[in-house]
Design a protein that fits this description.
Rossmann fold, 38% helix, GMP Synthetase, Chain A, domain 3, alpha/beta, four-stranded parallel beta sheet, nine-stranded mixed beta sheet
């Protein structure tokens, strides 16, 4: 076998007349066969040589997912360039910072408006080339149809900028060896899917390719006999899924939890009979999972009248979902399992080539856990319950940040900053982030994520729950969304009843506006940027504690 890129090209050659990519364009699908994809890549390679792109040049790629994006990405890698993928919905000032940091020589941008917004904040930026210009017709005798340029294991393939939950985003370098190992793991995982359908596996992709795990999904699909459909409008994902009729697709928890809450909210407005069927069938499903007899009637009725209709919203052909980026609520995983849709969780960071653990599709998943370590790596628990990774998936370092690289790779292994533990079955659970630990003035160290998740599950209308309290005597919470104070207090009281005194939430403040990536309070992948939130709402937090202290006749907790 060749390296990961040679394998992608070989699969395309074997799929000359088979559709390998579909792009949703309005009401139509734009189809590309393996042969047509290779022709596009060959033309782009010729254009890149005309532009003077050299092996080792950093070339930024900015635009939403598209067939063109894929072809340019493959062409750049084939020519030996280092691809710097950027998020098209990110602020222009942040994009300019990444371009400056990477020293990109060229910027390939999807449209003039996007390029213009960057030019306003950085007029001296790299040369901008529109996607469409790269696809101008190239004479057949000038097209570069040969194999990809040879790559050594240590050669950098891409620099992917982390989303930056705190501090400035860093450029994560991934090399040939990282990609060779990871694609071997993911394509091997796909071989374990219980796929018996006719034709290629249909995969739907809506997460942007500038994220490591999403990019790995794309390369994995192009390495196997699949048909990958690309979403082009995040505001129409539900409709696009229905039209695409996928067998599988990759998700972040936000979408899946939104689906579950939407269904439950819709059922709450229906007649009492429908609500009773849902409740009875849900109870019957839980009894079945526990090995208890009975309940078949209600389970069958729920399947007929409710579950099948929900399943149909995904196109009717869905066989399973993959979920990563953040822990998925156990209730949501159970909800989809009840519908007959298994969810396989994965865990990883950009620095680990996107993946460290994966649920095995041949085994029952454990809700609340993210599967077993992928083959060939060592996943350990270090000081303060921190997960530490050693293996060929670990990145060689951050771009131009030797000191931060040395800290991250101290002792020859990558220190993830995540806390976790493994059970007797080898399945891992992620419990929190070390850098997110709240240290009370009593000295107690507390991971906020488990508390936040429990409260959020009891308040479906809440958009976010963020626990605060660093330096204070007790925990409090910021709650966003249209929620009633009484429902928040009831949820906190219920969660507190099962926690030791120092982990109990004693106060909260309601914020009407939800945190968003556009406001800078969430990362592009939907993770809360705690440092930014604490700064933005410092006055509200201080006032909350001051009022509580005044009422209690004390200070700061």
């Amino acid at each position: 076998m060749g390296n990961f890129l040679e394998n992608v090209f070989e699969q395309a050659r074997q799929s000359t007349s088979r559709t390998v990519l579909r792009e949703i364009s309005g009401e139509q699908f734009v189809l590309v066969t393996g042969g047509e994809l290779l022709e596009q890549v060959a033309g782009v390679r010729a254009k890149l040589r005309e532009l003077g792109v050299q092996p080792g040049d950093r070339c930024a790629l900015l635009g939403p997912n598209s067939i063109q994006w894929v072809a340019i990405d493959l062409a750049l890698m084939a020519e030996g360039a280092i691809v710097v993928p950027l998020y098209s919905r990110q602020a222009a000032s942040e994009l300019a910072g990444m371009l400056k940091d990477s020293g990109a020589r060229f910027l390939f941008v999807s449209d003039r408006a996007l390029g213009g917004s960057l030019a306003k904040v950085w007029a001296q930026g790299p040369q901008q080339i529109l996607f469409s210009q790269l696809f101008d017709r190239v004479p057949a005798d000038k097209a570069v149809t040969g194999p990809p340029n040879p790559r050594k294991n240590e050669d950098i393939i891409t620099i992917i900028y982390t989303s930056g939950t705190s501090g400035e985003p860093k450029g994560v370098c991934l090399n040939t060896a990282n990609l060779n190992h990871m694609l071997g793991c993911t394509t091997g995982w796909m071989d374990h899917l219980d796929w018996k359908g006719p034709g290629a596996i249909a995969v739907f992709q809506y997460l942007p390719f500038n994220f490591a795990a999403s990019w790995i999904v794309m390369l994995s699909c192009l390495s196997k006999e699949t048909e990958l459909t690309l979403s082009t409008d995040l505001n129409k994902v539900a409709d696009e899924i229905l039209r695409s009729k996928p067998n599988y697709f990759f998700n972040v928890p936000t979408l899946l939890e939104r689906v579950r809450r939407g269904v439950e909210d819709a059922l709450s407005t229906r007649g009492g009979f429908v609500r009773m069927i849902y409740r009875k069938s849900q109870e019957a499903w839980k009894q079945k999972q526990q090995g208890q007899p009975g309940g078949g009637f209600w389970l069958g009725l729920g399947q007929l009248l409710i579950f099948n209709k929900i399943h149909g919203r995904f196109g009717g052909n869905l066989r399973g979902l993959v979920c990563g980026s953040a822990p998925l609520a156990s209730e949501t995983q159970d909800f989809f399992a009840m519908l007959g849709i298994p969810i396989w969780q994965v865990y990883g960071l950009t620095e680990t080539c996107g993946i460290c653990t994966m649920d095995d599709p041949r085994l029952p998943s454990e809700p609340g856990r993210v599967g077993q370590a992928i083959p060939g790596i060592e996943l350990m628990v270090g000081e303060n319950e921190e997960l530490v990774v050693r293996g060929p998936n670990v990145f060689p370092g951050y771009w131009n940040r030797p000191e931060e690289t040395a800290r991250a790779l101290a002792g020859g292994a990558f220190h993830t900053g995540d806390q976790g533990e493994m059970n007797s079955k080898g399945n891992w659970r992620i419990s929190g982030r070390i850098k997110n630990l709240i240290i009370l003035n009593s000295g107690h160290n507390i991971a906020p994520e488990p508390i936040e998740d429990k409260i959020a599950q009891l308040i479906p209308a809440a958009r976010q729950v963020v626990v605060v309290g660093n330096g204070y005597g007790y925990l409090s919470a910021l709650v966003t969304g249209t929620v009633e104070s009484a429902s928040v207090q009831a949820a906190i009281d219920q969660v507190n009843s099962g926690l030791p005194h120092y982990r109990q939430v004693r106060n909260f403040v309601l914020l009407k506006e939800a945190f968003t990536a556009e406001s800078g309070l969430l990362t592009a992948m939907g993770k809360v940027r705690r440092d930014v939130i604490h700064c933005r709402f410092a006055e509200e937090i201080e006032q909350m504690y001051a009022q509580h202290a005044a009422a209690a006749g004390g200070n700061k907790g």
